[in-house]
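Need residues for this backbone.
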């Protein structure tokens, strides 16, 4: 992780050590959101097949909202006295996940892969919320608001992958490529 200096000041009611802890966690959220909005745009550009227009148009509002979430996280970091590292180099160097692995593909295949992407982002966000909940209610509130939107976007993706029996076609997948293949095999 990039060097996070202890801030010289922070918001009233927080110690600078608590602010540093929050900034460190928010930096990972910023990376996750920047990566997610780029991944969503990649899918938007590379989706093909009979569901092309539905998925293509579904993703743009998600991209816009996720970009807004990243901005909110970066601004919270600044308010806490920190520095938001939003460069591509910092993202690639510090992320804990692999790059999105599906290129030009059928809409359903991309949605299968996005199911795993959203799952990872949401699981990490829930862990971040548990970490901040006893330190700072303002940061917790920000993250909870984002969680609601991300879970709704995930639901939009999963609705395309659900069978009539109520199971997900990607339920057994552990990689994006595998999820894409399983989604296509339904």
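Answer:
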């Amino acid at each position: 992780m990039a060097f996070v200096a202890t801030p010289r000041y922070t918001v009233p009611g927080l110690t600078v050590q608590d602010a540093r802890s929050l900034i460190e966690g928010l930096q990972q959220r910023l990376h996750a959101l920047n990566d997610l909005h780029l991944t969503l745009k990649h899918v938007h550009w590379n989706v093909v097949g009979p569901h092309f227009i539905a998925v293509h148009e579904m993703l743009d509002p998600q991209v816009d909202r996720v970009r807004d979430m990243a901005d909110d996280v970066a601004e919270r970091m600044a308010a806490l006295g920190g520095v938001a590292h939003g460069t591509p180099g910092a993202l690639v160097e510090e992320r804990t996940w692999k790059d999105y692995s599906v290129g030009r593909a059928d809409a359903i295949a991309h949605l299968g892969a996005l199911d795993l992407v959203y799952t990872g982002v949401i699981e990490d966000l829930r862990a971040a919320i548990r970490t901040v909940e006893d330190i700072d209610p303002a940061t917790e509130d920000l993250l909870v608001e984002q969680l609601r939107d991300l879970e709704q976007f995930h639901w939009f993706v999963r609705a395309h992958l659900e069978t009539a029996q109520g199971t997900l076609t990607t339920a057994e997948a552990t990689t994006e490529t595998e999820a894409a293949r399983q989604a296509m095999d339904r």
